């Protein structure tokens, strides 16, 4: 069994904290050229293709990928029936139509980039989404049948609030569903002018059914 990570470098704007290969302007010509080059590389190494138990589309902002490109990529791999297929998603890109299309393509897990629920913090780190976008995107994804959703948060930004973030997690949790919601965190490297270095905490799994 093998695991595949595929990177999509396009973004509407590069976030100020990002050190990944990202921030490429997502015009159609660039996206088409990248997709064609990617497919050539995938086909070149196709003889190495084995049954994949995990497939991850990361970025960048892979939720900007056209559905026909995503379908061609996924169809090019031998993906096992019970595989986890993850799509990283920026909240502001989520629509009901796109969420339904991602489900049809076989995406069964989404990693939703909340990062913060504080509007000032979101602007400070260069996010194009708002706190309302975070909640709206989560609810759309759940309503369209996604039952494996993780949300990201960046820690150690001066002025951010654990309570505000966890209140938002509690707001979107559905106690009657019997589901557990994953809460993943990442540590932002501190900058003296804007960030205080505080101990990092993480909540691995939060149960809303106990």
The value of Rg in angstroms is 18 Å
CATH topology: TIM Barrel
* Tally of alpha and pi helices: 6
Question: What is the string of SSEs from the N terminus onward?
Answer: EHEHEHEHHEHEE
What structural class results from the helix and strand content? alpha/beta
> Which strand order spans the largest sheet, edge to edge or round the barrel?
1-2-3-4-5-6-7
How many domains make up the 3D coordinates? Answer: 1
Q: What composes the largest sheet? A: 7 strands, mixed
User: In what range is the share of β-strand residues?
Assistant: 15-25%
Which stretches are poorly predicted, pLDDT < 50 over at least 5 residues?
190-210
Walk me through this protein's architecture:
The chain is globular, with a radius of gyration of 18 Å. Helix 2 (67-75) links the parallel strand 2 and strand 3. The protein has 210 residues and is of the alpha/beta class. Helices cover 31% and strands 24% of the residues. It has a single domain (2-207), classed as Aldolase class I (TIM Barrel, Alpha-Beta Barrel). A seven-stranded mixed sheet has the order 1-2-3-4-5-6-7, with helices on one face. Residues 190-210 have low confidence and may be disordered. The longest helix has 17 residues, at 28-44.
Provide the fold topology.
Layout: E1 2-8, H1 28-44, E2 52-59, H2 67-75, E3 79-89, H3 96-104, E4 109-115, H4 119-124, H5 131-143, E5 149-155, H6 162-172, E6 180-187, E7 205-207
Parallel strand pairs: 1-2, 2-3, 3-4, 4-5, 5-6
Antiparallel strand pairs: 6-7
């Amino acid at each position: 069994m093998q695991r595949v990570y595929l990177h999509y470098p396009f973004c509407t704007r590069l976030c100020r904290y990002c050190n990944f290969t990202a921030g490429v302007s997502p015009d159609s010509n660039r996206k088409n050229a990248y997709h064609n080059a990617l497919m050539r590389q995938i086909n070149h190494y196709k003889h190495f293709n084995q049954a994949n138990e995990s497939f991850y589309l990361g970025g960048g902002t892979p939720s900007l990928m056209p559905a026909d490109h995503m379908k061609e990529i996924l169809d090019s791999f031998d993906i096992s029936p019970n595989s986890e297929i993850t799509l990283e998603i920026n909240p502001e890109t989520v629509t009901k139509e796109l969420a339904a299309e991602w489900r049809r393509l076989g995406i069964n897990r989404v990693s939703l980039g909340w990062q913060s629920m504080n509007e000032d913090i979101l602007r400070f780190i260069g996010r194009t989404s708002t706190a309302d976008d975070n909640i709206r995107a989560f609810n759309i994804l759940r309503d369209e049948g996604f039952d494996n959703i993780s949300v990201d948060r960046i820690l150690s930004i001066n002025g951010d609030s654990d309570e505000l973030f966890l209140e938002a997690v509690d707001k979107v949790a559905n106690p009657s569903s019997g589901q557990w919601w994953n809460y993943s965190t990442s540590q932002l490297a501190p900058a003296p002018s804007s960030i205080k270095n505080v101990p990092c905490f993480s909540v691995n799994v939060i149960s809303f059914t106990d």
